[in-house]
Structures are given as C-alpha cells and as structure tokens.
Model the fold of this input.
Amino acid sequence: MNRRLNLIGGATTPSKTDGNPFLAGLPDPRTEEDQVHLLAHNPFRDKQWVLREADPRRLPMLMEEVFIPTQRCVEISQKIFDAIHNGYYRRDPRRIDIGRYINSTNLVETTGSTYSEGLSISGVTGMGKSCIVGHVLRKIPQTIHHEDIDGQLSGVTQIVWFQFEIAQVNGLAALLIQMLRQVDKVLGTNEYSRQYASGKGNVDELADRVVQAFKMQFLGLLVLDEVQNLSFTRGDTGERMRNLLIRLANNGTPTLLMGPPDSLQFLEKEGVSSQLERRMFSGGLFRIDPADSLDDEDGRTIVRGLWRCQIMPNVGDLTTAHLEAYFSNTAFIPKFVAHLHAASQQCALRAGEKSLSPERIDHTAQHDPMLMKMRSFIQAFVNQDPLGLIAYKDSGVDYFKKKWGRSAIRHQVAKSVVISDADEGPSDVASPQIVHARKLATAKRRMDKSEKLADSEMDGQRTDLYRQMEKLVKDSTMR
Done:
C-alpha cells in the first residue's frame, strides 16, 4: 500500500490521487497555511542557535539560511506542486498503459489527456526567482525508487524534478547532453550519455534521446533557469528549442521557465509562437517586480520576517521609520533587503550601538559598496523612474515605462530644473553640468507642451522627445 509522507507537521487531507505510485512520498500541501509551514525557515528563532552562531562576520551568510514565504512565494509554490501532481495524475498507471505511453509520440495519443502544464517566472535581478523555486524543490525528494509500478514495470527510479541553468550552457546541443548526463548522475549509470562523451551530437537525435529519457524516468518537473532571449530567437536554434518544449509538454513533462523580464518571448519568423505561449503559461505566469511603494505587502512581509534575524543586544520594535529606511534604500528587493539588514548590524556593532536604528540603516546604505554600485538601479524603482533603468539591458525598461507612465519623467528632470534656475553666478560661461541641466529642462518643457496636442498628433512627438530625454539622462549618468 502506498504511504504518503507528512512533511508539514500536521494532519493532511487524503489526496484525491492516493494510490497513484508516482505520488507516493511527495508532500501534498493543500492550503496557504500548509505552504507557509512547509516553506518558512528562520534559525534565528532558536536562541541557542543565535548564541552559538552570533558572529557578525558570518551574518551575511547566515541570512541566506532564512526564507520568508510571502504571498507571491506561496502562490508560486502552490503552482509548482499543482504542476507536479497534475502531471503524475495524467500518467497514473491505473489510468494508462505505461508501455504504450513510453513508446508513443505523445501523451494525448495514449490517453486522450491534455498536454502538461507550463509555468513561467520573470523578474529583475535580486527578486529571488531562483531562491524561491530552489527552496520549494528542496522540500520535494528528487528521486523515488519503485520496485513495482502497478504490475507494468519494475525496478524504476522516478525523477521528480531537474533544474538546469541555460545561461551557463553553450548551445542547445550542449544543454541536451548536460540533461542526459544529469539523468545518468542521478541514476548512477552512464546509459543515456555514454555515446556523447565527446560533448558533441546531432541536435535532433539528442532531443529524441532527452524526451525518451524523461518519459522512461517519469520526470515530474523540468526547471530551466536563466532563460535569455537567445534561447527562443528567430532562427534554427530558437525553433528547435521551441519544438523541444512542445514535445515535452505533449509527452506529459511539465516545464518551468525562469529569466529576466524580456526573456520569455517565443519569437518565430512571422511573430510570436501562440502555441508555445499558451502551453508554457497554462500553469501559471508570474512576474515578480520590486515594490511600487512603502505599502507593498510582500515587501513589508520580508522586512517583518527579517527584523527578528538580529544579533544586536536589543531587538526593538520595527517602526514605520525602519520600513521607510529599508524601502528607500532597497525598493524591498529581497536580496538587497537581506544584504542591508546584515551590513547595518555589522556597522552598528562596530560603533558600539545596542539596537538597530533607521539612521544606521540609512548611513550603511549610503556607504555600502554593493548598494552604492546598484543605487541608480534601486532608485529607479523607488522613484518609479524608467530612465534610471536604461543602463541595465535585462531590466525590462519598456515594461516599466508602460507600468509607471510618462509622468515619472518629471521626477527625473526636477533636479535639473532646479539647477538650471539657480544658475545666477557672475560668470557668463555656464558649467557643463548647468548646460546639460538646461538641455534636460528644455526637453521637459517640450514634453509638457506635447501633452496639449490632440491625441492623433501626440504619440509620434512624445516618442521622439522621450528618446531625447533618455539620451540626456543616460549621458548625465556617465559624467
């Protein structure tokens, strides 16, 4: 009799798919509360652990052990579990002929079932895409060995999930060979990859081999991380990559794609692949953005959760002033919040302070090398200023232009207008900074004027003016 493991700590409702051997041993969180219990991890709650590990030098590393499940994390986790469970429901050996499935070209042909679900997660750097998915996967066993599968197969090792980073692989053939090698590594064999020891192979042949290997081992979820535009570009490689994902979906293997904001575009010669978009987004499409304001609930959840992760002598209450300090210096980007929280404590302890103040957080942010390097990136989100993202090619600046609207330009040029108006010195020769500020102010006045035009005349002129202002702002950041 199959036995479900209880990894949550409380009683679980019997699964509707109990008896399915592919689901035996997998956690089955049903509610948001179940998800939180499963995912949350904060060793700082253990006072003995804090006393033992309370070394300021290790604080940044210790912060990496903390996981605060936000509402978005819970939603993503639930979709991952849904994709795995639904995928195995479609391949339940009590419902299908396993031998026929393995030898068929797709799951629909075998069972009449629909294709597997696809998930996609995009977001700018630091938002924790890989961290969230990696943390969820670590709660799920990667392999389960079956002595018998409903009398149809014996001695099978089920692979529940795989995760690969596309950005670290040079070409589709190399990615496919890496997949085969990873299957062999998990199984402790060289059955699938031995003929590709040279690292070379025919892409079509490799794709056939990968699809078959995933079917034979009943892969529950394939995660492709660091997806870039190059992976799905127009051309032969992009077409083969798209075809591979469709084949995997047709054969019952759910896929999760992660990458920067503009990476998940499935371009074909005549436009976007609607078929692949429909399949890859059917199980969930998530975009994780930095906080829009101090009131962002996920951002506040992260700060509240990290606040107790302290080695300060006195851990006081979290105030609005603390929240403002974290938001104004990190835009509640999780990676930066955790970094600033650790660095602020280190600075406070060196200064002999007993508790963590908003002033200390602000001071640390202004002098921390990493946060100084990323300041223009962070402030672009704090101020909703898309022009501040121009220098970052993977930030999805066009998306944020639409999200925040053109009114954000005024914030960017305000300082330049002030500088220009304040130029009342005795010299007739203005400094380069003043000249640049005047140009930016003139562009702003032209933009203001363009807003009074009729809608039919407005779009083209505004686009040209916006590009002019982008160039001026970009030039200013290089001075």
In short: The radius of gyration is 27 Å. Residues 297-381 form a domain with the Helicase, Ruva Protein; domain 3 fold (CATH 1.10.8). The mean pLDDT is 79.
